[in-house]
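Service request form, structural biology core

Requester: graduate student, group of Dr. S.
Request type: structure prediction, single chain
Budget code: on file
Notes: please return the result as structure tokens.

Sequence provided:
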Amino acid sequence: MKETKPRIELKNVKHMEALSEETHAYSATVYVDGKRWASVSNQGQGGPDSVYPLRNSKKTYTDIQAELKDLNKRISNTFDPLVDERYGGPPMKQDLELVCGELVNKYLYRKEFLRARRKYLMFTTSAKPGVFQISRPAKDRIEHAKAAISARHIGETLQFLDDLSEEDAIELFTTA
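Core staff response, request fulfilled:
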């Protein structure tokens, strides 16, 4: 029987930027396949994540660690290995710690994007790499602002992040 890929989510994420030195200092609730499973945290000083039972749970620390071992095996068998494009080296098998690290990154990218979107009208152009921005006009002036930007960039392909789904806009925001 084929092993199913677990759906891992983090909720109730609390990120403490001031405490983050080498890794993210954070705490969160881990959901596996839609069910609250455990709490996770990292002190932000380069050490590993700590995974422990939820408050008021009947599960012990030993129970969670045994389940974590099984979950890490499932993750390792069903998630694509990570390839470090900057430094090379062999692909790394994933585990809950790597998955949580990536989910915290996505949480922070989304937070940064939403903050920027409130203040700026953002777009990309085929002429130059990057995301460009102007102060966000009033709602009734956004289409006028888009037309004015388009008029200044004749012959270029423009993509306004407002015209994309949130997921696609965040992807463009973080990679352009």
